TrEMBL record:
Keywords: Signal. Residues 1-21 form the signal peptide. GO terms for biological process: electron transport chain. The keyword Signal applies. GO terms for molecular function: electron transfer activity; heme binding; iron ion binding. This is Cytochrome c. InterPro entries: Cyt_c/b562.
């Protein structure tokens, strides 16, 4: 175990988070800017919805693009499990579909892709809940 992992472990213990042998702590890297990044993600998703309702294709496309880029940042990829990778890939595909539909000025295809994106949000969060991967307790 290297120094950084020890630091992570100590940070977890000192914040009072539950740590047990089964916890995927080894695959989790904690960074203080993770939650702000995640909130930017929510903002981008809301902006896509705004763009969809107003049929502002450039707004839809640019926010879908920045969401996809956001998902490639290291702070997004805090959870290093295969399933999280898969969920992230599905998420990126949904972003890509939104962007392409918006570029083609296809409102209904963009709307459908947005629904898919929303499902991706919920699915990944459910995966984390089911596996008790919860970074929120590291905040403050
Ligand atoms: C591939 C997995 C994944 C996907 C997909 C995903 N998230 Fe997240 N989300 C995370 C992780 C990891 C965190 C940080 C851990 C936590 O808050 O428990 C997080 C945190 C958040 C937070 C901050 C929670 C807090 O406590 O402040 C919000 C808001 C959020 N996500 C919204 C969304 C929205 C909206 C989408 C879809 C546009 C989405 N997420 C898609 C993994 C994901």
């Amino acid at each position: 175990m290297n120094a950084f992992r020890w630091f992570v472990l100590l940070a977890v213990v000192s914040t009072g988070a539950m740590v047990s042998a089964q916890d995927p702590i080894d695959g989790v890297v904690i960074r203080e800017n993770v939650v702000p990044l995640m909130h930017r993600k929510l903002d981008r998703a809301k902006d896509i919805l705004e763009g969809l309702t107003l049929e502002q294709y450039e707004k839809i496309a640019s926010n879908a693009r920045s969401l996809r880029l956001l998902s490639m940042e290291s702070d997004w990829n805090v959870v290093q499990t295969q399933e999280y990778q898969k969920q992230s890939n599905d998420f990126r595909r949904a972003c890509d579909s939104i962007e392409k539909a918006a570029e083609a000025k296809d409102a209904s295809r963009a709307a459908l892709a947005y629904v898919t994106l929303t499902v991706r949000c919920i699915e990944c969060h459910r995966y984390m809940r089911d596996n008790k991967i919860d970074l929120t307790s590291y905040r403050k």
